[in-house]
Amino acid sequence: MIVFSNAYQPKIIDDAWQAGATMALMKSNISNSRLSETVNDLLSRHENEAVPSTEAGDESALQIEQRQEFLAGLPEISERFQQVHQAFQAATDERFLADHNLLAKWDGFEEAETKRGLIAWCESQGLRVRENASKTV
Q: Which of 36, 41, 48, 59 is most buried as measured by Cβ atoms within 10 A of its Cβ?
């Protein structure tokens, strides 16, 4: 179990440790990539865990079955988590670029460089390019 909290609250953290938490992370000081690494690390550790036998004394058969199903599904969970993280990171990057007007600047740069490259290629092929013409040859 991972505790993921907005603020350090000793009582809540202590209760989580008592309930079996294995890690506590603060939202305010963990990056997306660090969170992804942590979760993937924990998932990969559990992928290699031995599936408990049905002879465990303090667990019911239902709990054992649920744990076995969970452990069997860890590779899929890990893959899905990576996909979600990548999508989140891409959206975060795109929002950052948009918030700082960098997308428009990139689009302008890309358009100018594409035009420059096409003109250079046309000239290298012996083609003459006319600016502002309805048809460029």
A: 36
